[in-house]
């Protein structure tokens, strides 16, 4: 039996014995008489047993908790050790996407917080993430109708992307990058669109803006 079970057994025996002695004392005038040493020894035995098993049970619980804490610590260490590998993979993917975006990009032309170029119905707009807040460097972009590319630079250690939405429906979205570059391309007709970061909570914090296509 476990220490916990033995503790409860001793406690129950003590309780039953106490009731029995009380009843005997009420019915028998000379009780405990010569049996007094036996009664004292009986109670001393089970009081000592209950105390001992209570201490042992407490030690068992402490050991069990220590084992749980140790296991939790190992799991945390495993998660932390895997993070650098995941970040390295994301940086490699972001680097490849940035190279593709640079090949497609034309010569930029500054216009109200954005740099854009157009050639043969294709236009490239540049956008960057703020390093000190959950925000883009601008909340307003514009482009000519046709094939529109947004080159996105994220110098922050927090992962971001850029997605294009029209009437609540997502049209296109870039890859997630940290400290890297990526791009997103879509065929857009004249109208008003929304660009935003799709990472949960980032759009709500302010990472969105208006893309006007003429």
List the helices and strands and how they pair.
Elements: H1 3-27, H2 36-104, E1 109-111, E2 114-119, E3 122-128, E4 140-143, E5 146-154, E6 163-166, E7 169-173, E8 180-188, E9 191-196, H3 202-205, E10 208-213
Parallel strand pairs: 3-5, 4-10
Antiparallel strand pairs: 1-2, 2-3, 5-8, 6-7, 6-9, 9-10
Helix pairs in contact: 1-2
Descriptive tags:
214 residues; alpha+beta; Immunoglobulin-like; 5-stranded mixed beta sheet
Question: Can you characterise this structure?
Answer:
The protein is α+β, with helices and mostly antiparallel strands and 214 residues long. It folds into two domains: 3-95; 108-213, Immunoglobulin-like. The protein is built from three helices and ten strands; from the N terminus they run ααβββββββββαβ. The chain has helices at 3-27, 36-104, 202-205, and strands at residues 109-111, 114-119, 122-128, 140-143, 146-154, 163-166, 169-173, 180-188, 191-196, 208-213. The strands form two sheets. A five-stranded mixed sheet has the order 1-2-3-5-8, covered by helices on one side. Strands 4-10-9-6-7 form a five-stranded mixed sheet. Helix 1 runs antiparallel to helix 2 (36-104). It is rod-shaped. The termini are far apart.
């Amino acid at each position: 039996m476990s220490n916990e079970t033995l503790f409860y057994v001793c406690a129950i025996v003590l309780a039953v014995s106490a009731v029995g002695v009380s009843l005997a004392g009420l019915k028998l005038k000379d009780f405990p008489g010569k049996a007094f040493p036996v009664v004292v020894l009986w109670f001393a035995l089970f009081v000592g047993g209950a105390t001992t098993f209570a201490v042992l049970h407490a030690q068992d619980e402490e050991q069990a908790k220590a084992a749980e804490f140790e296991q939790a610590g190992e799991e945390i260490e495993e998660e932390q050790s895997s993070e650098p590998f995941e970040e390295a993979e994301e940086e490699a993917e972001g680097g490849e996407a940035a190279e593709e975006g640079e090949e497609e990009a034309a010569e930029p032309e500054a216009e109200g917080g954005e740099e854009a170029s157009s050639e043969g119905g294709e236009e490239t707009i540049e956008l960057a993430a703020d390093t000190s807040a959950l925000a883009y460097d601008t909340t307003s972009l514009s482009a000519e109708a046709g094939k529109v590319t947004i080159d996105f630079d994220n110098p922050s250690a927090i992962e971001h992307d850029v997605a294009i939405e029209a009437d609540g429906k997502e049209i296109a979205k870039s890859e997630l990058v940290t400290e890297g570059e990526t791009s997103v391309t879509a065929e857009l007709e004249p109208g008003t669109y929304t660009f935003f970061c799709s990472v949960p909570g980032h759009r709500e914090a302010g990472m969105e803006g208006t893309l006007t296509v003429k």
